[in-house]
Description:
Chain A is an alpha+beta fold. Chain A has helices spanning 45-60, 63-79; strands spanning 11-14, 18-25, 30-35. A three-stranded antiparallel sheet of chain A has the order 1-2-3, with no helix packed on it.
Amino acid sequence: xxxxxxxxxxxxxxxxxxxxxxxxxxxxxxxxxxxxxxxxxxxxxxxxxxxxxxxxxxxxxxxxxxxxxxxxxxxxxxxx
Amino acid sequence: xxxxxxxxxxxxxxxxxxxxxxxxxxxxxxxxxxxxxxxxxxxxxxxxxxxxxxxxxxxxxxxxxxxxxxxxxxxxxxxxxxxxxxxxxxxxxxxxxxxxxxxxxxxxxxxxxxxxxxxxxxxxxxxxxxxxxxxxxxxxxxxxxxxxxxxxxxxxxxxxxxxxxxxxxxxxxxxxx
Lengths: 80, 177
């Protein structure tokens, strides 16, 4: 991993045409400004992860797995 | 707590009998429950959709008595899009939800205090199958809906420390949703 120290107002450049500027620093977070071509998709990493998890959640659950889920639930019920 | 607008998913044949004569009630095909009639006031709106399905903004919560407390979040316009949810307090009885001001604004909740799960909001974790034997719930990004106006979001909070692969095992003392 490349590690670079920057101050507020300073930037880094990715490739030829992506510019990431540190706009503001607070104790627990920083505000970034990103200038990039329209074709570059920019997401928070956790949003990208959630998107992938949601797609898997929507695609993976079928009636068999729901029965599996419910059987876990019924064993929970038996124990209580 | 009673959630009167959570749509019961009727058995198909019963549904026909039950709703005969109420032709004005909209009907949609669903992924798991055949065709379901619903009240327009049962529709939940997700203004931003859910990540991965940003275009899908209208959903029904379906449940069947046999599947309590599991809920199904069925898209109105896409038959094959139906998420399986577990109320989050069933998995983590002391779960606390902290929303950002932006999230509170979308849900039209007062931002000055944390919403109470089961009273102000329904908070559910999406269930995902990694393999046949591994069912996980995403606690990092729960679905949160305002119970009073049926507005919903998926609240993504990596800083909460909750896992996006929480094994599905039910806590001993399940509370309200």
